[in-house]
Amino acid sequence: xxxxxxxxxxxxxxxxxxxxxxxxxxxxxxxxxxxxxxxxxxxxxxxxxxxxxxxxxxxxxxxxxxxxxxxxxxxxxxxxxxxxxxxxxxxxxxxxxxxxx
Length: 101
What we know:
By secondary structure, the chain is an all-alpha fold. The protein has one domain. The chain is built from 3 helices and no strands. It is elongated, with a radius of gyration of 21 Å.
């Protein structure tokens, strides 16, 4: 098995990507769990003859879903050089500050 040097830039970038993936999947899990509870509560609180398909029953899932979609885009699709350059610049700044101390 290959050992990794934690100072290696490629290792750090891969670790950051894994952290982003873990964050997204945690977000997705919480989204599913919370919205399942909301769906159950909304279903149980329906009056006889009332339809479930009302905007109020989908409000949280809709707008939180938009946020989840934005999170997915940033994790899976939007891997621009601008973000990597900014991250590398910030890493260098932090390391320089730590070395001065």
